[in-house]
Each structure stands twice: as structure tokens, then as C-alpha cells.
Design goal:
Largest sheet: 4 strands, parallel
Radius of gyration: 12 Å
Helix content: 40-55%
Strand order of the largest sheet: 2-1-3-4
Distance between the termini: 11 Å
């Protein structure tokens, strides 16, 4: 599984989200390649899943890739809940 974490410029908050997604995935026993990206590049990246916030998700709505929305990139519980809910539905 390849996951993209997305922010406006692809450097700051998407990197924080990437590290937190990796931590959550490790804790729930899921192996995935996680990369961070800016919103423009994310439209052209090959990925199985995109994780971002609501505002940026609106810019990605033409993507064929499922998009998960988190409000707080630092909240590992929220990230975990969003990922687990997605995995229960689509795995």
C-alpha cells in the first residue's frame, strides 16, 4: 500500500502527518510506504490512499484515489480512527 500525506507545499505539515501515519500504521501492524507531497503533485502521484485536511481534499476531489480527512495532523488517535475505519470498509 502506498499512502500520500498532503499539505499545501509538501514540506511542513505533510511531513509531520507522514511521521504520525507511519507511527500509527506500525502500532496497528500495517505495512505501507508513506510519502509526503504538496497538493498539486498529489494529483499525479501513484498512490492507494491520500490523507489530508478538508480544505486540501477539495482540491483533490478529481483524484481517483480515496481521500481520508483528518482535522489535526498531530492527533494520532484521530489518525488511527480514520485509518482503521477505512481499512475495515475497504480491506
Amino acid at each position: 500500500m502506498r499512502i500520500l500525506t498532503v499539505c499545501g507545499l509538501g514540506q511542513g505539515s505533510s511531513l509531520i502527518l507522514k511521521m504520525n501515519v507511519e507511527s500509527v500504521l506500525k502500532n496497528i501492524g500495517i505495512t505501507a510506504e508513506v510519502e509526503n507531497s504538496d497538493v498539486s503533485t498529489a494529483l499525479f502521484e501513484k498512490a492507494d490512499l491520500i490523507i489530508t485536511n478538508k480544505e486540501l481534499a477539495e482540491n483533490l476531489e478529481n483524484s481517483a484515489v480515496p481521500i481520508l480527512i483528518v482535522k489535526n495532523y498531530f492527533d494520532k488517535n484521530e489518525i488511527r480512527n480514520v485509518l482503521v475505519d477505512y481499512l475495515k470498509k475497504y480491506k
